[in-house]
Design goal:
mainly alpha; 80% helix
């Protein structure tokens, strides 16, 4: 088995796993697009390694395999940044929901204090 076939099989396995996770609702759409892109890149560059060499020469990189390392680190940094952006957005939404809930609870308590007790409700104590 050549490394080209191995890379293609790895890409297809990653893509299949991602689609299975999306179908099982363990991975949501925007995140799935990212990982499908990773799987397609692995399959594409593994299937045609000459294209990888050509891109490295085009970018002026003397040792083409280092391009994979640079691309991998770059993609990891972008992924970490998008994860932090998403986490910040979720924290902001949770904070706003907690504030709205506190306002609604305060309004409910104020309404309960102004309304007289109905005759069917037992008195406290």
């Amino acid at each position: 088995m050549t490394y080209q076939v191995t890379s293609l099989v790895l890409g297809l396995l990653i893509a299949g796993t991602i689609l299975w996770l999306v179908r099982r609702d363990h991975l949501h759409g925007p995140f799935a697009f990212w990982w499908i892109g990773v799987a397609a890149t692995v399959a594409l560059l593994g299937s045609w390694p000459r294209m990888f060499d050509w891109i490295a020469v085009f970018l002026g990189i003397g040792y083409p395999p280092i391009l994979a390392v640079v691309l991998g680190f770059g993609l990891l940094l972008v992924k970490m940044l998008t994860m932090d952006i998403e986490r910040s957005r979720q924290e902001r939404r949770v904070r706003r929901l907690a504030q709205r809930m506190a306002l609604l609870e305060a309004r409910q308590r104020a309404l309960e204090d102004t309304l007289p007790l109905s005759p069917s409700e037992p008195a406290d104590g």
